[in-house]
Amino acid sequence: MSSLFEPVQAGDLQLANRIAMAPLTRNRAPNAIPTPLMATYYTQRASAGLLITEATAISPQAQGYADVPGLYGTEQLDGWKRVTSAVHAAGGKIVVQLWHVGRVSHTELQPDNAAPVAPSAIRAKTKTVLIKDGVPTFTETSMPRALELEELPGIVQDYRHAARNAIACGFDGVEIHGANGYLLDQFLKTGANQRTDDYGGSIKNRARLMLEVARAIVDEIGGGRTGIRLSPVTPANDIADENPQQLFDYLLAQLAPLGLAYVHVIEGATGGPRELPDRPFDYAALKTVYRKAGGQGAWMVNNAYDRALADAAVAAGADIVAFGRPFIANPDLVTRLEKNAPLNEPDRATFYGGGAAGYTDYPTLY
């Protein structure tokens, strides 16, 4: 039986163990530029088999929160090079999560104070983070405008370009953020997509943009360095679909031939309950669809895992288990899990924005 602490292959990525650090937005990149402090933060956690960075904007339009990093400007790339070099020097593997927030943004965060973009002009009933006088403030999102058909190829190219930049920065690969109610998820799901063109209506049409993005990135850097994150039923950022099982079965069957390194699935509500009675979903059936369609990527599971749940998941066939919030307060989480040691409790007041406090100053066992 496989162990959580044994090596695993994920596409081209040989990982030292089956523990991944999930993406965690921390709002510590002023002007969207990664800082030396971020290099310290990720390096402290490099014992994870795979580090997945905080969500990183592929373009100025893709930004939706204050002080989150980007991957489209020279200073941003230079900042990320420092991060990847430090992580690799510590023996770690790191991929960057590519992000376009779509409608989950605010005019203050958009170029020229423009409206955020979306598949349809439907406002998300959620909040984003603005930073006022150094203080993070949760603020209602702005009303978006619907993207024109002729704008969509440009967004696909932004993803392709960001993937190329990622490899140039030294990342081991990328993760496509297709989850949590952001742009690709908005196109996918009926609750946010009311289009009547080739990107709306049928499941095939709503999945089109995500698949175009995935194919473009695979064409650019190879499937073995490309992962994707999905959240079939999370209500995060006011997202829902009327038939998620059929939708995601179709999507995974289409992703299967791309030779992805891994598929990262959030089970239940992101950061919330693993089971949603009003949104039932069969994750084992989804994995079966992917495998039957020829998908060989590692299967990564995520949401509220502890050591016992992770052991059970690996025993049941999961290849990788992603941990989120436990990594915030426990840079040596791998060691603590292996030794069944107590975990530090995270300071929620320092989750978003700030400096070293609550970021790089948590104690380790040794």
TrEMBL record:
UniProt record similarity statement: Belongs to the NADH:flavin oxidoreductase/NADH oxidase family.
Alphabetized InterPro entries for the sequence: Aldolase_TIM (IPR013785), OxRdtase_FMN_N (IPR001155), Oye-like (IPR045247)
Signal sequence, renumbered to the chain: none
GO terms of molecular function: FMN binding; oxidoreductase activity, acting on the CH-CH group of donors, NAD or NADP as acceptor
One cellular component (GO) term of this entry: cytosol
Cofactor: FMN
Protein name in UniProt: NADH:flavin oxidoreductase/NADH oxidase
A Pfam family reported for this protein in Swiss-Prot or TrEMBL: Oxidored_FMN
